[in-house]
Predict the structure of ABC transporter ATP-binding protein.
Amino acid sequence: MTTPSLSTRDLTIRFGGHVAVNQVSADFYPGTLTVIVGPNGAGKTTYFNLVSGQLPASSGSVHLDGVDITRYGAAKRTTMGIGRAFQLTNLFPNLSVIENVRLAVQSRARIGMNMFSVWFSHTELISRAEHYLERVALADRRETRVAALSHGDKRKLEVAILLALEPEVMMFDEPTAGMSVDEVPVVLDLIHQVKAERSKTVLLVEHKMDVVRSLADRIIVLHNGTLVADGNPVEVMASPIVQEAYLGAPEHA
Ligand SMILES: Nc1ncnc2c1ncn2[C@@H]1O[C@H](COP(=O)(O)OP(=O)(O)OP(=O)(O)O)[C@@H](O)[C@H]1O
């Protein structure tokens, strides 16, 4: 198997006496989409926060391409290649939709800059930003101030920004939560496209089992902060812990 792009080793965080993520070790590989599931309060979002750097680990470590990034903050991890959507904190509410994506394209161009590359012209930045807006079906909103967007459009914009940043690791946190029925397919299609390219390491937190089934190459189950199952979707979905966690919870089916 290839080298993991992302690894966590015994990753742990305590809030007072409560261990929200408990010694989670996992390796994530390029071209694989891993869905993290588990009951409410299992520690899924907290694990994401530890990987993306929003929260500091109490113990254990996070590695990106073999580099220990445990002590790096979220901004540094983003520049190193960990991209996360659906926090709705990446957006500049007073700028237009196109400006938000243009800034992401510009920041990516800066990160990728080396002695052989050139600065993009403003026109080129805008044309790249337009490309990402078209991919998320937001081209008709390009001049809208972000604060005026619907929740679903904000989430689509976050996907455009994530794509524009071209991170090696892409993290999606309940990508369709709060979206209207007609908005859901756009975002799911995009995740399918990213998966089909098979170059990115994709992590997804998801409750909806139909989404899990359609996207997962691998499923990790967290329960009380502990990794209790990890493997191919068919086996993991059939395991007693998943059956127990999800059967009888029709709102998540
Ligand atoms: N900043 C915090 N301070 C104290 N406790 C926290 C904090 N963040 C999370 N927790 C606790 O950690 C546990 C895991 O929460 P987390 O949000 O990661 O679960 P989750 O699996 O994402 O749940 P859900 O599916 O409901 O989003 C919960 O008991 C939660 O109350």
About this structure: The first strand starts at residue 6 and ends at 15. The chain has two domains: 1-81+169-253, 89-166. The radius of gyration is 18 Å.
